[in-house]
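tmp note - Acetyl esterase/lipase
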Amino acid sequence: MFTVEKNVVYGETEEEYLTADLYMPLKFNEPLPILVLIHGGAFQAGSKEMYKEWGEKFAQEGYFVMAINYRLATPNYASFPAVIEDLKQAMNWLVLNANKKELDINKIGLIGDSAGAYLSSLFALSNHSFSYRVCSVIGVYGLYDLAYECKNPIIVRDVNMNERLLGLPFDGNESAFYAASPIAHIQDAMAVPTFDTSFYLIWGEKDTIVNPTQSLLFYEALKEVNIEVEITKVEDKGHFWFNQLPGIAGGKVNDYPNNALMPNILDFLHRTVKQALNGHYSKRQIQILSKIGGDV
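out:
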């Protein structure tokens, strides 16, 4: 059994309040590990309701779940980098409410699809806090290199979603698009002693919306610097199947391929979030401390 709190205000912009839906188990014996769910929608659409079934499922598995809305890009408003501030506000809300809600803020996982996978990965790689700990990211058919996507599109759109996100034309600004990409922040993340985020990348090989090669290149870049990363390629699926969208069939947790992926997802979360180290330590720090102890 679980409870749901709808439209909880977790932050605000200059124009509006930011809201989230919260899912949590009714009974638990220790502070809850946390999952933050970040919807996709080409940076211009989507909502927290897309993750309703996942929120319920993860709450039943013993997680506190926060499915968030965030500011969206419009023809007159480029949401980057302000949208990253929305994620910071979500994290600060978790820290502020950790005691009241009985949450373990050192056991946080981020889950996002498409644009949400981009936001989850970029946030984990470029924002480092001593107040909480992002242990893992699950990215589903995500964007990880905006410059690569602009140069190698699967589909030519009337509106380039990456240009709308940044408020810049790609021509003449390739370096800005790359700098705003998760893949550009891997080396910086590895320079932070407390960085210890594991990744699980999932994508459809028949994706005709986002170039699936991005996921493979991101995987290889993470692996090259020894960041823990796992992958699953869904050979017979494309885009728009991980969560529910109006007018599009499928997307439920019991629909294929979500039902086939479920054991892997739950196992990954159990290992990387539920069983994460207590306290704000990275595995590298533990190794250093153990060596120091051995030298005494």
